Amino acid sequence: MYTHPSIIGWNHTKFGKLDLDLTELIGSVVPDALVHAQVAAADVDGIFVGVYNNGFSRQDFPSSLVSLAVPEFRHTASTRVENACATGSAAVYAACDFIESGRGEVALVIGAEKMTGVTTADAGEILLSGCYRPEESDVTGGFAGVFAGIVDAYSERYGDPHRSMAAIAAKNHRNGVTNPFAQIRKDLGFDFCNAVSDHNPYVAGTLRRTDCSLLSDGAAALVITSADRASSAPRRIGFRSRVHENDFLPLSKRDPIEFAGGRRAWNRALGQSGTALLDLDFIETHDCFTIAELIEYEMLGLAEPGQGHRVVEEGLAVADGKLPVNRSGGLKAKGHPVGATGVSMHAIAAMQLAGEAGTFQLPVADIGGVFNMGGTAVANYASILERW
Prior knowledge:
The protein is globular. The strands form 2 sheets. The protein has a 9-stranded mixed beta sheet. By secondary structure, the chain is α/β, with parallel strands linked by helices. It has helices spanning 22-37, 66-69, 87-100, 120-127, 133-136, 142-158, 162-176, 190-194, 227-230, 260-273, 290-300, 308-313, 330-334, 338-354; strands at 6-12, 46-50, 78-81, 106-114, 202-204, 207-208, 217-225, 237-246, 282-285, 367-374, 379-387. The model has no long low-confidence stretch (mean pLDDT 97).
């Protein structure tokens, strides 16, 4: 008998600059997620809300906002979770832990963020709270500046990665065209992404605008249940494995281009699931910057260190490749509302596995992987999901 916690329903807003505040974003995804899962509010035993905030919204205490959308949740236990850019996955895992502990049968997970209500400069300062401020807060360009330094370190050790980064940007924008949830649905093409221009200027160091994920608003919700409860659900996407590993926050204490914590999490998740890498039908991975996806090719085992460019050149990760990566458009095209991202990545994977991804559905999707990280590979979450 299947024993793992399972996703049985979801809902997802479009990502972008939305005319909704944090309360409205949370409320916008809850009712339809319950309908999709065929679960009544009265059946939900616990609610887990992922919101990063740290100044994006003056309204905090987001776990208390869910009952404003669904008054039946007035007395349902609701908890807020935060873990930088992996906040959404932290909420997903907290819900799975809740189910596996036997404390409840049904959990509701919500990830949300309102990022566009502040200036770009203020947003950059807020996001720097995901770095080690004593050493990294004065970097020019904020969080983008931190990753620009990673580009420099990668270039020094392995050679210039910018063409590969442009190809990754072009791939993800091409994928985003068919995803109705994506913030940017335009095929920008390799030449545009590879060139510096008035429309694609340097943002920090040698990072171009097309190398950087977007400031986004958005929300996503999942209903997660025990396997017993899921057995009678109209769809069931199980966690074959899920692993959370951390690493030092200061980049000075580790190799900044190794993503060692992410590698440990991913390898453990594959091992616990009994899955070989190329048994996966797709991966959704954390491309906050194109250099991150390039390094993750190596971290995930698709290439040896320094050889991530081969994944790009051989077409392994494109939509019709041997192992599609970020068929959704990734954070690059889909958007990156910080608290929503990890929930979105699991929802996108569940859509693919259930055959419900519509215009961006892969022809074969039986088992998939998700990698979501907080900070520069500090909080690392790796999930292997399957349809059963």
